[in-house]
C-alpha cells in the first residue's frame, strides 16, 4: 500500500465524539518514549503529521488521522513515563480503556515496544488486558536501527520467549525503524490486506 493522503481529523478525550464514519481503524499505542510519533510520520511519509518531542508524553488525546480517505490511523496517549500527574494518568487510562472497549470501528491495535529493552511489565500487562478483552493486536518492535545485526535477533527472540510464558503462540509482530524505514512496507501491506478482506466480507 502507498499512502497518497494523510490528514489530521480530530483530537479528543471522549470516545463518543470520535468520527462517526464506519471506516476501519488501527490504533497505535505504547509507552510514552517508544517512538510512536516518529513511526507514524515514517509510515505516512509526513515529517510532522504526529507531533514528536524530546519530552515523553506529548500525545495526551485520542488523535484520528484519515489515510487515503479509506481508513483511520489512531494515535493514542502513551503509558508509563509521561511527565504528568497521577490524576492526569488516571484520566488517560479511563479514556484509553473506553476507546478499546466501545470503539466498534477498531480493527486492530498495534502495541509499540522498544526492542532495545527487556520485556517490561507494563507492556506485558497491557497486552494481557487486550487479550482478555478479545481485542486483536500486533506488536511493533521499534528502534531496530539502534541494535547491531547480531544483537537484534537475540533481543527479539528473548522477547518471544517471555511472551510464550503467557501466550499459547506469539502474537503477530513487526520489526521497524523510523530512521531507516525498516518494516514500513510490511506493516502497510498488512493493513491493506485486512482492509481488502473487510471490503470483500
From TrEMBL:
PANTHER family for the chain: ENGB-TYPE G DOMAIN-CONTAINING PROTEIN, MSS1/TRME-RELATED GTP-BINDING PROTEIN
Family to which this protein belongs: Belongs to the TRAFAC class TrmE-Era-EngA-EngB-Septin-like GTPase superfamily. EngB GTPase family.
Record's keyword annotation contains Cell cycle: yes
Domain EngB-type G: 22-197
HAMAP family per UniProt: GTPase_EngB
Cofactor section: Mg(2+)
Gene name of the encoded protein: yihA
Name of the protein: Probable GTP-binding protein EngB
Lineage start: Bacteria, Pseudomonadati, Bacteroidota, Flavobacteriia, Flavobacteriales
Source organism of the structure: Aquimarina celericrescens
Annotated Pfam families: MMR_HSR1 (PF01926)
Physiological role: Necessary for normal cell division and for the maintenance of normal septation.
Keyword tags: Cell cycle, Cell division, GTP-binding, Magnesium, Metal-binding, Nucleotide-binding, Septation
Amino acid at each position: 500500500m502507498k499512502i497518497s493522503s494523510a490528514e489530521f481529523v480530530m483530537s479528543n478525550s471522549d470516545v463518543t465524539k470520535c468520527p462517526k464514519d464506519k471506516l476501519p481503524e488501527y490504533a497505535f499505542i505504547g509507552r510514552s518514549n517508544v517512538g510512536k510519533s516518529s513511526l507514524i510520520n515514517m509510515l505516512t511519509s509526513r515529517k510532522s503529521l504526529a507531533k514528536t518531542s524530546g519530552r515523553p508524553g506529548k500525545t495526551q488525546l485520542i488523535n484520528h488521522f484519515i489515510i487515503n480517505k479509506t481508513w483511520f490511523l489512531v494515535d493514542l496517549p502513551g503509558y508509563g513515563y509521561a511527565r504528568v500527574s497521577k490524576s492526569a494518568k488516571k484520566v488517560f487510562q479511563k479514556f484509553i480503556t473506553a476507546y478499546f472497549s466501545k470503539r466498534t470501528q477498531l480493527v486492530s491495535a498495534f502495541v509499540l515496544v522498544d526492542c532495545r529493552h527487556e520485556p517490561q511489565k507494563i507492556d506485558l500487562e497491557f497486552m494481557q488486558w487486550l487479550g482478555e478483552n478479545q481485542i486483536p493486536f500486533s506488536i511493533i518492535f521499534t528502534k531496530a536501527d539502534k541494535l547491531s545485526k547480531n544483537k537484534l535477533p537475540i533481543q527479539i527472540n528473548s522477547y518471544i520467549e517471555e511472551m510464550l510464558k503467557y501466550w499459547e503462540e506469539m502474537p503477530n509482530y513487526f520489526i521497524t525503524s523510523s530512521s531507516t524505514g525498516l518494516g514500513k512496507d510490511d506493516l502497510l501491506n498488512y493493513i491493506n490486506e485486512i482492509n481488502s478482506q473487510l471490503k470483500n466480507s
